[in-house]
């Protein structure tokens, strides 16, 4: 097969090996799949629990003694949702696209806390393999799903645990940072968890796996809010109200494609996290004593803030805390919303003056 024939084959199959296709299109689509499964499921469960909404907290079915609520079912579909979103971005034909549901489920579960990262790599390779084989035989209805699912499961078994281990290293850095005094720990935890929130790895899963609560959990909340609110406000001129909502209470991962194109747009929210983290731990003593998963959610559906409030309530009930004070509320509001909304745009304005960030760099 000549170089020219390979090129024509790839063009016919719409296989485009490029940083834009894999690092921007696929990653941006994956972020949407993550939001429509793990994040929205967590929000639904949190709302049901906090407001005692029965139809949201009652199991809708049970599988092998595991009960699933509406939110729990959405979270269970995280892998398939991300893989299908990636396949859609790569222009996969229907048989490949539908087969990616199984591949995504396998990669996400075998990858553990690094499930989203595993899904990204595995789904991209599998989708391209499926696209290459699709339509090449007279029994396409059998061959395409077999090849797509078979190669995807094999890659998941081979790569996903290792990718999951890499993601967990991020968690170990977080735990290592908690041994330091609050100032240093606040910076490290805030920056690391905030960055993990924006990357295609699950900061919420990492925080949950590590049981990240207390001051470390508070720093994690600060870092996540710095990324989400920071990106939402500093990109308002490009994305308007839709972008403010989708990033501010959705996910900053939507900016991942733009970060690949220009990593300097990440400077402002990351530096903001380094500033608000120690403010949270040293000045306001902000602690996350609710569900550890909420430490890695930031302002997504206000799950992080609800988690902090839940911790306050539990501490008051147990006698560990006398009462919820005005200083508590002031710290939560400043760290979660006001400081990121002020600091990130100011730093980003400096980046613009230096020519590091230009108009359109933050457009979703």
Structural class: mainly alpha
Q: Separation of termini?
A: 40 Å
Strand order of the largest sheet: 1-2
Can you give the mean pLDDT?
A: 90
Reading the helices and strands in chain order gives HHHEEHHHHHHHHHHHHH
User: Count of helical segments?
Assistant: 16
The low-pLDDT segments are none
General description of the model:
The chain is an all-alpha fold. It has two domains: 12-167, no CATH class; 178-353, no CATH class. It contains 16 helices and two strands. It has helices at residues 3-12, 19-50, 54-57, 70-76, 78-89, 94-110, 115-133, 140-177, 182-198, 203-210, 214-234, 236-248, 256-261, 267-283, 303-318, 326-353, and strands at residues 61-63, 66-68. The chain has a two-stranded antiparallel ribbon with strand order 1-2. The longest helix is centred in the middle third of the chain and has 38 residues, at 140-177. The radius of gyration is 21 Å and the shape is globular. The mean pLDDT is 90.
């Amino acid at each position: 097969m000549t170089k020219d024939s390979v090129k024509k084959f790839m063009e016919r199959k719409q296989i485009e090996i490029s940083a834009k296709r894999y690092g921007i299109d696929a990653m941006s689509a994956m972020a949407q799949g993550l939001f429509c499964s793990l994040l929205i499921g967590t929000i639904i469960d949190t709302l049901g629990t906090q407001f005692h909404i029965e139809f949201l907290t009652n199991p809708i079915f049970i599988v092998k003694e595991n009960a699933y609520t509406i939110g729990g079912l959405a979270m269970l579909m995280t892998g398939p949702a991300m893989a299908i979103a990636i396949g859609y971005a790569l222009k996969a034909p229907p048989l490949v696209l539908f087969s990616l549901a199984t591949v995504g489920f396998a990669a996400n579960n075998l990858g553990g806390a690094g499930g989203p990262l595993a899904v990204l790599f595995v789904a991209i390779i599998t989708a391209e393999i499926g696209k290459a084989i699709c339509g090449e035989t007279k029994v396409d209805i059998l061959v395409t799903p077999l090849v797509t699912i078979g190669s995807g499961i094999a890659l998941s078994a081979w790569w996903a645990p290792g990718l999951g281990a890499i993601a967990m290293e991020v968690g170990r850095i977080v735990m290592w940072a908690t041994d330091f005094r609050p100032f240093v720990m606040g910076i490290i935890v805030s920056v690391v968890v905030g960055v993990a929130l924006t990357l295609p790895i699950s900061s919420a899963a990492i925080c949950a796996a590590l049981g990240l609560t207390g001051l470390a959990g508070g720093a994690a909340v600060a870092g996540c809010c710095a990324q989400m609110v920071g990106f939402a406000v500093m990109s308002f001129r490009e994305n308007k109200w839709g972008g403010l909502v989708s990033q501010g209470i959705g996910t900053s991962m939507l900016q991942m494609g733009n970060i690949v194109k220009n990593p300097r747009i990440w400077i402002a929210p990351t530096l903001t996290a380094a500033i608000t983290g120690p403010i949270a731990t040293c000045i306001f003593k902000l602690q996350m004593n609710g569900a550890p998963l909420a430490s890695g959610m930031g302002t997504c559906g206000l799950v992080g803030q609800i988690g902090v409030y839940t911790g306050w309530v539990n501490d008051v009930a147990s006698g560990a805390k006398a009462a919820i004070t005005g200083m508590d509320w002031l710290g939560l509001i400043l760290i979660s919303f006001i400081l990121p909304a002020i600091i990130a745009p100011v730093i980003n304005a400096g980046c613009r003056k230096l020519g590091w960030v230009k108009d359109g760099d933050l457009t979703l």
